[in-house]
Design the sequence.
C-alpha cells in the first residue's frame, strides 16, 4: 500500500529530527533522557537522531566533561552557537535594520541606519539594505555562522509565499519584487544560495511573540491565539490562531488600519472613509498632537524618533499629545472590538511603536473594548481577551524576521543545512 | 521507537478507511480503481478497506450485476442508504425543526413547527424538540436508518466542544445545558447512546456550505476560505479558513452582529453602541420598514414568516421596506469591510434569512465593501472577495447540523458505528 508522503519512514524521521532540534532550541540544555521524555520517544529512539544532529553541527554537547572511556553520562545537549544563522531585515519608512540570530535565538549581530524611504524607488533602498546585510554577514562569518535564510519585513501587502510587495502605501511601492535587488546576498558567488522570504512586518512581529519562552530567558509569551497590533507609519495586525498565522486567501489578512471606525469620517488614501489609520496612525496622531511640525527634524534623528517625540511630550503632560493618544486608543478599541467579536482571541497584544505609547493609549482602548465585547465575554470569567503590551516593542518585526529565516532549519534540520564538513561560507 | 498516535499502523488504517468512505460519499458511485486513484492508494491497498466498509454496512455495491462466479468487475461503490443517519435540529426564535440525512447527504425525513421560543425556558422548548426528534427517528427507523449523532443549532454562544448554551440573547438563555433535556433521544433505553453536539447556528450554516459538491447534484460550493453571514433574529457569522471553522479561543468567534458599525449610534442590548444588529437585525429592519405592526400576526404563521413579509413588501416596491433593506445592506457592508480587511477571505456568503432578502440588501452591501476594501483588493485582479448568496438559504443551519452529526462516522467509520450484525435500534 502506498502511504501519503507524511506517513513514510523518511517523513517520520524528518519530523522526529525536527522535534529533537526544536526541543533543545526551546528548552536546552537538556540531557538525552530529558529530550526523549519531552517529545515522547524512547531513549533508544532518540540516540541516533541526536547523533545525526551532532554530526550536522546543529547540536553540541555541554555540561560536565565525560570521564575518559566511559561515554558522556552527564553531558547535556544545546543547540550549536556556530552553523546556521537567521538573517532578519526590516525596511521601515524611516529606517533600515538587519540582525542575525543563531539557533538558540541569540542576537549575534545587528545594524541599523536612518533612511528616508518614503516614495523612494525600491532599487536604491535595496542597495543600502544589501550593504547592511554584507556588514552583518561578515561579522557572523568571523564567528563561524553562515546565513541559512533571509527574511525581510515590509510595511505592506505581500503575495502569499512570494517575494513581491504587492502594495506598500507608506513606501509608495506597488508590485515590487525584492528578489533581484537582494541577489548579492541570496545568491552569492561560490557559496550556497540563501532562501529569501518577504513578509508583512505585522505578521513577523506576531511570529516573534510566538518564540518559545526559553529563547529569551523564560518570560512567557502570549498564548497562541491572539491578535497582534503593530504600528509604524501604518497600522497592521496579525491574527494568530492555534499558534499559526492567519494569512488570508491571498496573503492580505491583517489590514486593521483600514477597518472602518467612523464610517462617515475622514477620507483615507485607500479610497475608504473613516479607516482606523486616519485616527490612530502615526501621521494622524502627530497632526492631532500638534507635533507634526517637529517631524522633519525627528525624521533625521533616525528610527523611532517620531514615536519617541510623542512619548516624551505625553510624559511631560502636554495636553494636546495626551488627548491625541487617548483618541487613538478609542479608535483602536473600536476597531479591535470588531476583531474580538469576530475572532474571539485569547489576547490582544500591542506591539511595534504602540508598545512604547501604551501608557497613554491603553486606558481608552480598554474602555471601548470592554464596552463593545460584552456579548462575547464569558460571563463566568467576567471578561474578554487580555490586552497586553509586547515584550519586544519596536524590535518585534526584525526579530520575527530573523526567526522566520531560521524556521526552515528547525522544521527540516538536515535538508536545509549543509553538512558539517562542507567548506565554510566565504565572507563577501 | 514509539510513534506519535497518528503515525501508528492503526492510525493510518483509520485515516485510510475514512478517506475511502469520504471519497465515495462525495463522488460515488465509484469503481474500486476510481476510489484508489482518487485517494492515492494502490488497488491492492484499497480492497481490504472497501471490504471492511461493506461488512460494516457503510458502503454498498451498485451498478451492473456481477456475472456469476466471476467476481463483480463492473460493480460500483455507493454509500449505504441504510445504517447511520445524522440528526440535525434547529432551535429558532420562532420555530423548531429537525431533519435526518443518510451518509449520502440525502434528506430522509424532516419536521418543523412554529414556536414562540423567545424568553421561553429551555425545559419546555426541549420537550417540544424531543417530540419532533422522536417523530423523525421513528420514520427513519422504518427505513433501516439509526441515529449516529445529533447536532443542535442554536442562535447563541456555545462553549467550545460542550453542550451548554452560554448565552442566547434572543432566546433569553444563559448557561443552559441542553444535554439533560435531550436525554430521551441521546440516551434511549435499550439502544446505543447518540452523541450530542450543540453548535452556533451560523457555524452550522457555514459547515453546510462546505459539503462536497457531489452531495447535492454537483453544484460547486464556495471555496474553503469564506465568511458566512446568517441572520435569524440576530446576526452571526462563521469564518472558514482552509476549510476549517475558526471557533475562537473560547468558541465565541463570529459575533458579527456586535461589530461596531456606527460607534456613537444606537444602544444595543449587549451593552455596546451602534452594533450591526441595531441596523441590520430583523427587529431593526422590521421597525424601519414600518412592518413591525404585522409582527405578531407573522409570528403565528410559522418559521420565516417575518422575512417572507419583508420580501413581499420589498418586491411590491414599498418604499420604506426597500429603504430599510438598503440601510441594512450598508451596515452589513461596513461590518463586512472590517472582516474582509482583517481576514482576506476568498468569498462572503449571505446565508440564512439574508439569502431571501439578497436582492434588496446586496447592492448597498457591495458598494460599501468595494469602497472600504480597496487596499486589500489585489490590483492585478481588481477586486476583493466575491459576494455570493447561499444555495441553501434558511435551510443551511439545519442541514449543517445534520452533516455535523454524521461527521464522526465519516471521520472514523468503524469506531462510531455499530457493526452491521448488531441489533437494530428500537423505535421509541
Sequence:
Amino acid at each position: 500500500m502506498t502511504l501519503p508522503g507524511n506517513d513514510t519512514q523518511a517523513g517520520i524521521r524528518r519530523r522526529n529530527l525536527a522535534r529533537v532540534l526544536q526541543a533543545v532550541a526551546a528548552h536546552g540544555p537538556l540531557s538525552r533522557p530529558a529530550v526523549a521524555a519531552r517529545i515522547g520517544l524512547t531513549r533508544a529512539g532518540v540516540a541516533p537522531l541526536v547523533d545525526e544532529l551532532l554530526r550536522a553541527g546543529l547540536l553540541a554537547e555541554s555540561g560536565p566533561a565525560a570521564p575518559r572511556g566511559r561515554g558522556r553520562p552527564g553531558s547535556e545537549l544545546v543547540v550549536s552557537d556556530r552553523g546556521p544563522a537567521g538573517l532578519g531585515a526590516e525596511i521601515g519608512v524611516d529606517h533600515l535594520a538587519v540582525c542575525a540570530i543563531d539557533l538558540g535565538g541569540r542576537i549575534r549581530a545587528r545594524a541599523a541606519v536612518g533612511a528616508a524611504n518614503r516614495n523612494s524607488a525600491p532599487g536604491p533602498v535595496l542597495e543600502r539594505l544589501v550593504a547592511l546585510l554584507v556588514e552583518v554577514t561578515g561579522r557572523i562569518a568571523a564567528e563561524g555562522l553562515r546565513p541559512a535564510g533571509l527574511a525581510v519585513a515590509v510595511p505592506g501587502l505581500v503575495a502569499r509565499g512570494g517575494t513581491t510587495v504587492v502594495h506598500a502605501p507608506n513606501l509608495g511601492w506597488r508590485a515590487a519584487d525584492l528578489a533581484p535587488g537582494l541577489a548579492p546576498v541570496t545568491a552569492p558567488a561560490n557559496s550556497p544560495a540563501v532562501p529569501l522570504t518577504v513578509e508583512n512586518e505585522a505578521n513577523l512581529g506576531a511570529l516573534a511573540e510566538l518564540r518559545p519562552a526559553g529563547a529569551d530567558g523564560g518570560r512567557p509569551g502570549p498564548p497562541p491565539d491572539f491578535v497582534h497590533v503593530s504600528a509604524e507609519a501604518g497600522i497592521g495586525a496579525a491574527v494568530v490562531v492555534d499558534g499559526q498565522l492567519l494569512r488570508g486567501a491571498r496573503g492580505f489578512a491583517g489590514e486593521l488600519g483600514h477597518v472602518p471606525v467612523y464610517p462617515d469620517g475622514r477620507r483615507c488614501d485607500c479610497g475608504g472613509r473613516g479607516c482606523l489609520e486616519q485616527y490612530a496612525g502615526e501621521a494622524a496622531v502627530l497632526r492631532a498632537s500638534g507635533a507634526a511640525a517637529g517631524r522633519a527634524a525627528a525624521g533625521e534623528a533616525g528610527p523611532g524618533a517620531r514615536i519617541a517625540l510623542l512619548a516624551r511630550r505625553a510624559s511631560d503632560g502636554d495636553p494636546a499629545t495626551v488627548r491625541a493618544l487617548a483618541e487613538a486608543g478609542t479608535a483602536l478599541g473600536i476597531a479591535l472590538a470588531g476583531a474580538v467579536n469576530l475572532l474571539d482571541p485569547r489576547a490582544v497584544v500591542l506591539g511595534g511603536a504602540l508598545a512604547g505609547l501604551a501608557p497613554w493609549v491603553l486606558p481608552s482602548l480598554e474602555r471601548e473594548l470592554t464596552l463593545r465585547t460584552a456579548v462575547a465575554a464569558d460571563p463566568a470569567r467576567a471578561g474578554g481577551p487580555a490586552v497586553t503590551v509586547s515584550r519586544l516593542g519596536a524590535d518585534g518585526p526584525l526579530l520575527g524576521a530573523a526567526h522566520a529565516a531560521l524556521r526552515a532549519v528547525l522544521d527540516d534540520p538536515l535538508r536545509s543545512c549543509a553538512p558539517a564538513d562542507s567548506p565554510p561560507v566565504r565572507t563577501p
